[in-house]
Amino acid sequence: MVLSRRWAVFLTGVGVWTWLIWPRFGLAIWQDDRSFADGRPTSFLLVHAVLIGASLAVGTTVGVLGMRAWRYHRRRRVAEDLVAAGPSGPQD
Fold it and tell me: How do the domains of the chain map onto residue ranges?
């Protein structure tokens, strides 16, 4: 399956967005008064930690797929330019 260049950019953006948003949310959860009771983590913290970890894993996967598709389109464009230039190379 080949993704379009637009989808590649979108998926890469989603991956970047995920890594911008979820760590900040994790810090907010960590600092929340409900995260610890008697010095021990509560279920509130643990549930959110699992959600944040899963979101980062999905975001990373989506971002990697987007980057791979983006690189594919870039390599394809370079190859097409070389073919269009002919056997003697680019003419300046």
Answer: 16-85
Does residue 86 have a pLDDT over 90?
no
Spatial distance between the Cα atoms of 7 and 73, rounded to a whole number of angstroms: 11
| pLDDT tens track for 54-67 | 999 999 999 999 99
Whats the size of the chain, residue-wise?
92
Residue 37 carries which side chain, given as an amino acid letter? A
At 5, list the tokens.
Answer: 């260049």
| C-alpha to C-alpha distance for 72 and 59, rounded to whole angstroms | 20
Judge residue 11's burial from the number of C-beta atoms within 10 Å of its C-beta, 0-12 exposed, 13-18 middle, 19 or more buried: buried
**Number of H helices and number of E strands within the chain?**
2, 2
Find residue 40's DSSP bridge partners: 37
Question: Pick from 21, 44, 20: which is nearest to 33 by CA?
Answer: 44
- pTM over the 0.85 mark: no
